[in-house]
Design brief:
Length: about 140
């Protein structure tokens, strides 16, 4: 009987301590948003030449890249080959945390009724923002 009580106490005590530790205390985590970042979506013709060349090499497959030049940070995300025209990429979030810049994008398909062509396309987005000395995390 004593073994059973000791075994139960050994199982329940960590659960109690975990529950007590997580109680009403709010902890700051590395994913907490400090602020939204201002950015510009760059047209293909305005991309830095070196970045355009890197994208051209990778565009057939999903990719994520960062590129820094002259105090600017460029973040690019592509979704690889798509079967038709009409696809685009939307930036859902771009914000700074304590130790990173986080970006979340979505692939948008052709809208209903949109005139599409059955040719392969390679949708991607490039955003430009002021250079920040932090890792970039793609969500």
């Amino acid at each position: 009987m004593k073994r059973l009580i000791v075994s139960c106490a050994a199982c329940v005590l960590p659960l109690f301590l975990a529950a007590a530790a997580s109680g009403c205390v709010t902890r700051h985590t590395e994913t907490d948003k400090l602020k939204d970042l201002e950015f510009t979506v760059i047209d293909r013709e305005d991309e830095p030449e070196e970045l355009s060349a890197m994208i051209e090499e990778e565009k057939e497959h999903p990719f994520q890249m960062i590129y820094a030049d002259q105090g600017e940070l460029y973040i690019a995300e592509g979704y690889g080959e798509q079967p038709t025209t009409g696809y685009s990429v939307a930036v859902k979030e771009l914000y700074e945390t304590e130790d990173a810049v986080r970006i979340r994008t979505n692939l948008l398909g052709p809208e209903k009724g949109e005139d599409i062509k059955e040719i392969a396309t390679f949708p991607y987005v490039v955003v430009q923002l002021e250079y920040i000395e932090k890792d970039v995390v793609f969500d």
